[in-house]
Amino acid sequence: MPRAAGSAAKRQKLAPADLDLHSLHSSLQDGSPLPKIQVQLLLNASQACSELYDKQCKGRKDNANCLHGLVPQPGSNRRKGLWQKEPEALQHLGADPSEKNRQEGSQPVGLNNLGATCYANSALQSLFMNSAFRNGIYAAEEPSTSQDSILSHIRILFAQLQAGPFTSVDPTPFVKALNLNHAVQQDCQEFMKLLLSTLEQRLQPSAVPAVRNLVPDLFRGQLSYTTTCQVCHRQSEGSARRSHFYELDVQVQSMESLEHSLGTLLGVERMEGQNQYECGFCCRKVDAERQMQLRSLPPYLCISLQRFVFDLKKMTKVKANDKISFPLELDMQPQLDAGDAAGRHQYELQAILIHRGSNASSGHYVSHIKDEAGAWWRFDDETVTPMEDGPVGETADHGTPSSTSAHKGRKGAGKGAADAGNPVEVLNSDGEATPAQESPPAAAVQTNRITSANAYLLIYRQASWQPGPTPVVPDSLQPQLEAERTSHAEACNQYTAAHHDITSRVESRQQHTRQVVEAAPLSPDAEDDRLVSGSWLQQWADNALEPPSLTHEAISCPHGQLDPSKKLECKRISPVAWDMLAAQHGNPPALTSDQLCRECLEQQLESATEGRRGDELRVQMLETAIGLLDGSSSPAADFLISKSWLLGWRKRAGRSLSVASPTEALICPHDNLLPEAAGARARRVAIPARLWQYFRQLWLQQQAEQGEQKQAKAAQQCAPEAKPAEADATPAGAADGVGEAHGNGIPSVAGNAGSTPPGITAREQEGADDVIMLDHEGSLHATPAANEHATDESSSAADSHAQPSGNTDVEHARTVELREITCDSAEECAACLVEFSSHAEAGQELRQHLESEKTAMSQLAAGTVLQLEPGAQYNLVPRTWLQQWRAFLGTAGKRATPLSPGSAAEAPAPGPLMQAIANSCCQCHHSCEQPRLNHRPPAVTKRRGRWILADPGQETFEAISSADWLKLLHFHAADLPEGSSHPCREIKAVLQVCSAPTLPAPKMYDLAAGTLPDENVIGDDLQAVQKAAGGRASIADSAELLTDPLVCLEAVREREEHVKKCKLAYVDEEVLVELVNESQLGDALTGERKSKRARKGRTPVTVSGSSTISDLKMHILEALSVHPRNARIFKPIRHPSKPLDWFPLDQDDRTLAEYEVYAGEELKVVDTEQFDADDLGSLFGSPGSSSRHETGFMGTALMGIQPEIAL
């Protein structure tokens, strides 16, 4: 009989249990056709399947008739492949151009943001929505691009915004004409001013007066600076001189309203003292008043709110986040010079340019603009949305605390978070934090005013101003707009055609696939069938691209016929479905169930027959083993094996073997039988010869297979480019020290092919030597007398029952034994018996000694809490020594024998007591006659009227009574190492109580001299304290232990500093952060232990001691959604006799270790809400942005540089 090819885990089961192997074997022998029903059983095709779209069936691989899951139910989709909702090919087409179609109606369109051009988009939209300005631009003479590219491109841009085909216009040509760097954020107000100045210059050559004076007529006003002498009351000669202005710059810091800021701008300035005025009429310096007066106002009044100011401390430009209110209707009469601009002082708000963000060099610009019909729109680059409630209802852009959007979705923003209406802090001109004004409640918000912390530029229009007719795109610009419309329509048509083509092809493919699959199901009794690969069929039904080629490689054997072992890969389909598939793939030859390979089937039948015989034999051997272990049977006792090994084999139902041999645990270090007195490891079971022969053959077969695998692995490592020969599969469980038997029973033995399974005849290989040598490379070598099946094999390491080699120095070789131990000749090792007997006697003496020591100091051994009495003498012992001593006493009587190491949990004996006492002294006083301790004595506390150690588990020393100390000396006094002359032989301590009332200085007792306080004296002192305390029960506030030797404070400080540094050198540990109101810091943490429910609001963050406060704030941003610039962090400071205090961690560059923030500490976070929570751009600025010199618009066409021609 040939050797089994691999393990049972690799070999497939041939067929279900009801398969008639005898009938199949007979048909193969006489050459007759195979029975149809047996073929169906072989191919898993005997079971019918439910309906194709049955929801209960998810598709079964063990049923060749099941086709569920090939296609989804009608109307359903899948995540990917042919049946996904949107075909994958459509994604390559890109975005649908029709999505950019301009909406019908009067809704404005947006401008594309080219990177950081939101400032330009906001300014351009405000100018475009000004119909008078747009009419003036359209009315300008048609300039050539080579002559004036700026004017040409702004006319085209306005025409595209008004009548273009897109919902958002690309401003790239205009930006290139200005030479703007689209990657750098600029000042919107400065851009507006420079753009108007540039356009004014370029419109000057126009012959049309309305075009030539467009900018001055719309935006220019007049003012004068008057200086009045307080002596002669005359104005200076320059007071009559008028100047032009295009905008008014007003302050926002410390200004409640726009009217207040305008009044400050136009207010009277007194020139006194060293700043006196030289009057031309009085001919001397006199007191005077200076004032800026508005002489005339333009139709469109631009008011610039000075949001960006220079910080002298930071030497950079910062944003002022002060909130200022401004009206929808502005009356400029109080600010005008009397008699000027009569009737033209009423203004209506036309546009608001807004800067969102906390950083002056970053952020985002949006604009709120009113059209000529009175409707308000919000312009945010490409997005334009109507403002249903007008500018007053849009609070999110203004950064007002009345908006709840800033708190929506914030982690931890609950009861402890700052309320939306609470005052926040802003930066003043010096960069210092000052409280901002509290916002009014929602019910008090006015409908005719806006309060904003982000408004940057306001544009008011005179109420009596008539902007003129509705702008009409000039005829000269119509051809370019028509070309854009035509190009866009063509792109839409091309996309629609491509989309329709792809959709049609996918739908046609889906329809054909569903048609084939619905025609494919067959019943089990169908005579005519076709077989295809199930994996190919699934790939064909799912592939959205071209289907794969139709082949039978996955289910064919080397003989070109149907492979019986590939039954899980086979699917039966109808001839109709096959013809439809074959026509699509070049009509390959069909494969039916009648083409089952008879040669492959015969080989698998032989393997299955052998496996069944092995199963039957395994069941017999397992029943025998169970009877031996349970005592229900008593067959002939011929051989001895390890009981633990047999129990493991039974637990695995006989399907696998331990790597250790059945007798390996029974061999002692002297290579003899281990005595049963050695413990559980030496327990053995007597088994019959038949069972021994079965185990022996299985174990040797396992060793042979593992050797083959190691050789194949070594060959693969030596020659990775060469394909290694196919080795047998690793037995199941080999990684766990367990191998699996072949065929679920006994396989053929290597080198002994054709032999009958072992265990049938008794001791077939009685003369063979069963010792196998394992060298240091892991290769097995048989001794000269070993049989051939143990040659050149390898073995895994033995399991926990394996006996280690006696010589640990010799690592190059050890013995893995399969020793044959017969019951007749089995004799226990005499040397082991002698060792065990001597060890038992020594162990008995040790147990008696430990028991007497444990009895003498029962309370000390049990760790009973010691009650301390004032004035009584005690001794201090190192706590680590006492812990080792108690653990050693606890294992008394449980010592392990040398023959069974590890059978009991052993605690090591404590070190010398005197040495532990000596080690408790500092090194700086080591050689002195009066040594000192390197640790403080343990702290004491009073609980329920008794003085005890406060925290004995954390202290270096433990206090014991003098009686227990004398007993310890009795057992451990002689253990000081020879040659040691340390002067410290004991540590004495006396409890001194410090009473609450004012008393004379306490008496100090000389412990070194042996003078102790008398109990009567102590009692008199206590009575005096009681009397002074007014008879109260609590007569003492604190107490301490006075020691002899004294404590070395220098050593203690050095050690505590070292411990402190070690604790602060933590890496990737958690600290707890909690978001609270600043008013809650007083009662946020009272020092007492809180339950888990009370700590629910605290969130852990992972930091290190080297992390800076800035790093911690970034973690807080992730955990609590608090802006790093709004986060104020506090650390609790606990004082023994003072209430809890909070220390601010306000220096971002300092580390947690510098602030002494330990791992696990609880920190409180207060959100100032000074900065917008969504504005994070300032945290991730470009490298060197803080130190980079601000160049503004230098090098652009706005500064007079000739622009490049934008093509």
Automatic annotation (TrEMBL):
Catalyzed reaction equations: Thiol-dependent hydrolysis of ester, thioester, amide, peptide and isopeptide bonds formed by the C-terminal Gly of ubiquitin (a 76-residue protein attached to proteins as an intracellular targeting signal)
**In Gene Ontology terms, what is one molecular function of this protein?**
cysteine-type deubiquitinase activity
Q: What is its main location?
A: nucleus
Q: What EC number is given for this enzyme?
A: 3.4.19.12
Q: Where is the USP domain?
A: 109-463
Localization, UniProt: Nucleus
Could you tell me where the Low complexity compositional bias lies?
A: 712-737
Disordered: where is this region? Answer: 384-447, 711-762, 785-811, 1084-1106
What is one term from the GO cellular component aspect held by the record? nucleus
Keywords for this protein: Hydrolase, Nucleus, Protease, Thiol protease, Ubl conjugation pathway
Q: What are the BP-aspect GO terms?
A: protein deubiquitination; proteolysis
Classification via Pfam families = UCH
- Listed Polar residues bias regions: 793-808
Domain of life of the organism encoding this protein: Eukaryota
Q: Which family does it belong to?
A: Belongs to the peptidase C19 family.
Q: What is this protein called?
A: ubiquitinyl hydrolase 1
Q: Which organism is it from?
A: Apatococcus lobatus
